[in-house]
Amino acid sequence: MKQKILIVDDEQDLCDILLLNLSVAGYDAVAVNSGEEALQQLRETAYDLVLLDVMMPGLSGFDVAERLQGRVPIIFLTALGTEDCVLQGFRLGADDYIAKPFSVKQVVARVKAVLARTTSVRHAGVVACEGLTMQTDTKTLSVDGIRVAFTKTEFLVLQLLMSQPGHVFSRQELIDHCWPSDVVVTDRTVDVNITRIRKKIRPYDRYLVTRQGFGYCFEGGTDL
Prior knowledge:
This protein has 224 residues and is of the alpha/beta class. Helices cover 42% and strands 21% of the residues. Helix 5 (104-122) packs across helix 7 (171-178) and helix 6 packs across helix 8 (187-200).
């Protein structure tokens, strides 16, 4: 099933461009031109992500985000690019913030990254391999029945790797999926987090494999 994206912007030409490019990328996209219409759409249909302008007649994008209270991932697309506005967006629960003018290709890439990150977090249930068990709804991890303390980033990295066993993720892919877009992250930071994860999941660290020159993967079979 295609993931559904709601575009909210009072510039119809921009909506048309985003609709076309998101459709080509494989998404089911719908556009509305006001905050009021956005809230009505969200009451009637479940969306996986909202692309949200800030400056619109009537309800602003910030007003809409405040009413949604984190119930759906949001990427702000706005001409308001000052530091205060960006911080306001993230305080309201934004998953990303893109200032206009922007590259449509960049928007599509960041949509993919946010959806990959937030979808893995939202899916409730269990991801397990032998004695290694992640409770994805309560965000807890146990090794042979003993609860292990994890940082949010460590949890997201391990959950992403375990959710696609055998798939090799490059360091950049892990950064795009597991770190906020406004944080500068180096390859070394990824390696340090992987080292910490390995120590915490022993003896199952043997399944977290390095593919030299490519990245990391989880080679154990998992139950989702």
